[in-house]
Design a protein that fits this description.
heterodimer; A: mainly beta; ten-stranded mixed sheet; 49% strand; B: two-stranded antiparallel ribbon; 6 helices; 38% helix
């Protein structure tokens, strides 16, 4: 009985340890949208430092009525939004959630987002692990793609 | 003869970037044309009402959670960069947004949405037929998607920003990859004349 208890404690510690160190989300932000807009999107980079593939299956947040994982797929000239049932992050790999690509859609915002407001998003994984991601509401931190390097216009 | 043709071709190919650098944005004769819709601003419901100004034109919808606010904020960045030059420079360019979701995007909603991207942003809507006609003029594709998303109808759509000259002619299309600086350069090249 004692051994079993110890085993359970060890197992749960190991479980927590895995959840804490294997998954990491960085550079999280939510796009500020005008108050009349009901929907926004959350972005971050999801790192998997573990030895197993991590499978993101859902996300939740108090700020929105519904939270969904979507991907934007470019088909010819058309950007098409596709709801995802899961996103796999390979061992020692990362996946970027960014404008025009994977993103977490916040649908039916309960109140208007304020610039620089902190928003908490929770990611849920197939193995039961979850990860809390702190996000900052921002108009456009990195902008799209490579524009960050081109913020300052040089006159000529 | 063949050699001469090749030489000519090489000149054309090599000359292309030089031509762009020489600020000669080609006139796109395939896309564009005047149109009349409903506008968030009185007496500004026709493209030709903006004659004398350049127009930055984009199509989208306000329920769009990802691509449209990104593209609109890129327009904001271009406008703000122009304003760094002077308020007059900014005033020579009209940012214009046409919704292809008239059911949800009323004029009131468009106005309330767009003012956050800039005080000079104008929104337009119309009947589904009118919008379809304008979209066709500019080669814009938008397809309502069947989806089980809680967001309701989402559109698959093209996302170019169109740069129109002071005659309303299409002079450039910018994708979401286009650096802001290059867009500003293109705008300024049409202002310099």
């Amino acid at each position: 009985m004692k051994n079993l208890l110890a085993a359970i404690v060890l197992w749960s510690l190991a479980g927590w340890g895995w959840a804490d160190t294997a998954l990491e989300a960085k550079e999280g932000w939510v796009r500020w949208v005008p108050p009349v807009s009901q929907n926004s999107a959350a972005y971050f980079t999801l790192h998997n430092h573990g030895d197993k593939t991590a499978t993101l299956v859902s996300a939740s947040s108090d700020v929105a009525a519904a939270v969904e994982i979507h991907n934007v797929v470019k088909q010819g000239e058309v950007m098409s939004m596709q709801k995802q049932d899961k996103v796999e992050v390979g061992s020692h790999k990362s996946v970027q959630f960014q404008p025009g690509a994977y993103h977490v859609m916040l649908i039916g915002l309960k109140k208007p987002l304020l610039e620089r407001e902190a928003v908490i998003l929770t990611l849920h994984f197939a193995d039961g692990a979850s990860l809390t991601v702190p996000l900052t509401v921002s108009k456009d931190p990195g902008q799209s793609g490579n524009d960050a390097d081109h913020q300052h216009h040089h006159h000529h | 003869m063949v050699a001469r043709t090749l030489w000519g071709l090489a000149l054309v190919l090599l000359g292309w970037p030089l031509l762009l650098a020489a600020k000669d944005l080609p006139i796109n004769t395939r896309l564009g044309g005047d149109f009349t819709l409903q506008s968030t601003v009185v007496d500004k419901d026709q493209l030709s009402d903006f004659k004398g100004k350049l127009v930055l034109l984009n199509f989208g919808y306000t329920s769009c959670p990802d691509v449209c606010p990104m593209v609109l904020s890129r327009m904001t960045q271009v406008m703000n960069t122009l304003e760094e030059d002077s308020k007059e420079t900014r005033a020579q360019v009209q940012p214009l947004f046409i919704t292809f979701d008239p059911e949800r995007d009323t004029l009131e909603k468009l106005g309330a949405y767009l003012k956050h991207f800039g005080p000079d942003f104008i929104g337009m809507t119309g009947t589904p037929e009118q919008i379809a006609a304008v979209a066709k003029q500019f080669g814009v594709i938008y397809l309502p998607q069947k989806s089980d998303s809680a967001a309701g109808t989402l559109f698959a759509h093209s996302d170019y920003i169109y740069l129109l000259d002071d005659q309303g002619r299409v002079r450039a299309l910018f994708s979401t990859k286009e650096p802001i600086d290059d867009m500003v350069d293109a705008v300024e090249s049409l202002l310099d004349k």
